[in-house]
Amino acid sequence: MTTRRSIPFGLMLQGAGSHMNAWRHPSNPPDASINLDFAIGIARKAEAAGITFAFVADGLYINEKSIPHFLNRFEPLTVLSALAVATKKIGLAGTISTSYSEPFTVARQLASLDAISGGRAGWNVVTTPLEGTAKNFGKAHPDHELRYEIADEYLDVVQGLWDSWDDDAFVRDRATGRFFDRDKLHTLDHHGRFFQVAGPLNIQRSPQGQPVIFQAGSSDTGIGLAGKYADAVFTHSPSLDETAAFTRRVKQSAIEHGRQAGDVKIFPGVGPIVGRTAAEAEDKYQAIRNLLTIDEALAYLGRYFDHHDFTQYALDAPFPELGELGRNSFRSTTDRIKADAKQKGLSLRETALAVATPRPNFIGTAEHVADELIRWHDAGAGDGFILGFPVQAQGVDDFVELVIPVLEARGRYSRDLPGATLRDHLGLPRKASRHAAPGASQEPAAEAHA
Amino acid sequence: MTTRRSIPFGLMLQGAGSHMNAWRHPSNPPDASINLDFAIGIARKAEAAGITFAFVADGLYINEKSIPHFLNRFEPLTVLSALAVATKKIGLAGTISTSYSEPFTVARQLASLDAISGGRAGWNVVTTPLEGTAKNFGKAHPDHELRYEIADEYLDVVQGLWDSWDDDAFVRDRATGRFFDRDKLHTLDHHGRFFQVAGPLNIQRSPQGQPVIFQAGSSDTGIGLAGKYADAVFTHSPSLDETAAFTRRVKQSAIEHGRQAGDVKIFPGVGPIVGRTAAEAEDKYQAIRNLLTIDEALAYLGRYFDHHDFTQYALDAPFPELGELGRNSFRSTTDRIKADAKQKGLSLRETALAVATPRPNFIGTAEHVADELIRWHDAGAGDGFILGFPVQAQGVDDFVELVIPVLEARGRYSRDLPGATLRDHLGLPRKASRHAAPGASQEPAAEAHA
Ligand SMILES: Cc1cc2nc3c(=O)[nH]c(=O)nc-3n(C[C@H](O)[C@H](O)[C@H](O)COP(=O)(O)O)c2cc1C
Ligand SMILES: Cc1cc2nc3c(=O)[nH]c(=O)nc-3n(C[C@H](O)[C@H](O)[C@H](O)COP(=O)(O)O)c2cc1C
């Protein structure tokens, strides 16, 4: 691997954008979160620009305090299946919770998306932070650690189901009437602590061997799960140093699980704001910040802390002491918010605004943003980035029109995706079956973009 | 309602066709069950011909004895979401089991499909006959009656979730920052015998009010469920008289549940085989019958009876006595098979062939088939038909090219779908919300095709 390599980008598809009030921004359609034409337009623009995958976050519980985007949005598998037909090459990754779904169903739906898209499916494995979710599924919300134990077994089951059929199991010989080769069928027969799943799966093996596993928990336990199973990790990007340290930790975890550092690709989420001048970028940021009142910012902050009511505290006093609040939900996020507030001596107001409408790490001219992305990348802060723009329409346009040309001029970006599958785009080899002879069918990675 | 009205047709999308060895027929691609281009081609041809909906059956358990089509096929929601983009008007109905899924997830996925397709989603509610399914979900297979009790509560929950938001709940007022109207949000808060579901659903109300409910169980209990909830029923079509009697029973059940006979549309499944002459149609049938050996026919029959091994009986002796076998699975089907064998004095061989490769009720020239369909329709044997061709490619081509023109000439078919949603296509009014003022928002049916 040379250091002067192409940087792969994924793109969050999240309606109007990551900012809670992005729907109010004039560059977006206000119904963006439920507007298929908008989603298709964004995905096609991204694909034409060589973005390697679209990424759909998700949640399974809302109440009237939820942010607008969460109240009314597409379900990931359905919208990604629609995008599979509306696009040709871009990867299609969606979030599904291992705490509130069935492995047989999820294995199958992802395998079906993979078949439909010709090998472009990815799954962002989450354990579901939001405690209220349990109320939609008639059961108790498992604790943070238990959720990860469930996820571990769940992934083992799903990957086992995905290997139910060898790649060449379906012979379909019309003359003899032989449809499949019995020796190439593997019935899972899983009996575990949380799941009993007989199998086999009722769909062929994936064009990419198996769909790509993304993982998005950042706690120690989350990193352990990523090291064991993940092909790619979606993470926060608080600073270059922290992101580089996180990257090393995940790769170290992969090595401890008998894998190689390059087997798991780290994608910090970034939301660049770009202007033709630095001042124009600042103006864009201020326009975004002004979409929000302080009360909305407090409510947004409260979401991470079990909808804690922050209006009870003085706005300009130091960030309050919260004990264990939120630690069973978004643990890595709440720990970081608390640590930041303490370290930088932030008030509640400053913390709420920093969380609800953060000043991005990447803001300024296209040259500045491109150079910063290259600097992070070369310093080992991730293998690529997931773009999560505060305001989707403006963010995508600016990135594609302004930043990508600079990255190209620097020799650090290519619009051509060399392969056909998401694994190809990520520079990952086709996934070998657990039933294959050791080393036999793990093909080398295609000439990689990543 | 006049008697000389247009007859609506749905079309089963089942890969190579309903015949277990349809993949061997030269008119089909052998991988039809997992071939997206084939599915899109068929759906577009059907749409252009004015077929009102595509219909995807499903199952959640296979083993090496399963018929080829079931071993390797798309999952319904994903393929229907893909078809939503590949087509413009045709309805998109898929099968999902109430015994092996979560109402919150299913309500949401169907609502998302409905949003993506502009109001074309339908759900074929099944309770899952196949006992082995339990082995993929780590629980016991509920009994026939219990399955229907679960289904009843499940449908109540799903329909409640679909009414979480009033049609005009999302105001999205950029000036004031008001995204939704709190008075138009309804949190379900369901506490029942089988399900605890808080809600609300995280997606807007359906373009058609609610997705269309199909139901496909034919036992007394199944008919009761249909009478209470179904907008449409998919059923067998053993004979005109039996189908007409079944149609009356379902409509009677609807009336007993305080609905009207026209609120539930009955769709018998038919698989016409058409030739330019009667002899050509017979030849086509023989070619289809020859796709199958007697051993394959016995195995196919066994599927309905918990994979009972029928090779243990003499082939030409009368159909054996089976007691309760299969009655916890495909009850209405197994009862019918047993009754038929007894009544017609069939041997095991004859029964197996009649089940595995049945001579269709509709076979002959286009004129004959069209006239028979009209005769059934006018005699009250259903409100339309679901086409389930033994061999898909040949069946669709022959029906579209040969039969539809005759139906048109008879004034009993129109290629133009007058409305935009599946409810429009079925001649059903937009579904009113349970929170609407009585009679307020139930709009009259569009000028109906059905
Ligand atoms: C960058 C990032 C993205 C995430 N995306 C989602 C998501 O889309 N849906 C979800 O339910 N949880 C999401 N999570 C939550 C995680 O799955 C996990 O449940 C939570 O972060 C707690 O685990 P942790 O303490 O290991 O981070 C995300 C977490 C991170 C760090
Ligand atoms: C015409 C028809 C089509 C059916 N389609 C399916 C299907 O696609 N998937 C499934 O699991 N069950 C299907 N079923 C099974 C029913 O949902 C039900 O579980 C079974 O028929 C037993 O109920 P019953 O005795 O009321 O018919 C179908 C049944 C009929 C009669």
TrEMBL record, chains A, B:
<dbReference type="InterPro" id="IPR016215">
    <property type="entry name" value="NTA_MOA"/>
</dbReference>
<feature type="region of interest" description="Disordered">
    <location>
        <begin position="424"/>
        <end position="450"/>
    </location>
</feature>
<dbReference type="InterPro" id="IPR036661">
    <property type="entry name" value="Luciferase-like_sf"/>
</dbReference>
<dbReference type="InterPro" id="IPR051260">
    <property type="entry name" value="Diverse_substr_monoxygenases"/>
</dbReference>
<comment type="similarity">
    <text>Belongs to the NtaA/SnaA/DszA monooxygenase family.</text>
</comment>
<dbReference type="InterPro" id="IPR011251">
    <property type="entry name" value="Luciferase-like_dom"/>
</dbReference>
<keyword id="KW-0560">Oxidoreductase</keyword>
<protein>
    <submittedName>
        <fullName>LLM class flavin-dependent oxidoreductase</fullName>
        <ecNumber>1.-.-.-</ecNumber>
    </submittedName>
</protein>
<feature type="domain" description="Luciferase-like">
    <location>
        <begin position="24"/>
        <end position="381"/>
    </location>
</feature>
<dbReference type="Pfam" id="PF00296">
    <property type="entry name" value="Bac_luciferase"/>
</dbReference>
<dbReference type="GO" id="GO:0016491">
    <property type="term" value="F:oxidoreductase activity"/>
</dbReference>
<keyword id="KW-0503">Monooxygenase</keyword>
<keyword id="KW-0288">FMN</keyword>
<keyword id="KW-0285">Flavoprotein</keyword>
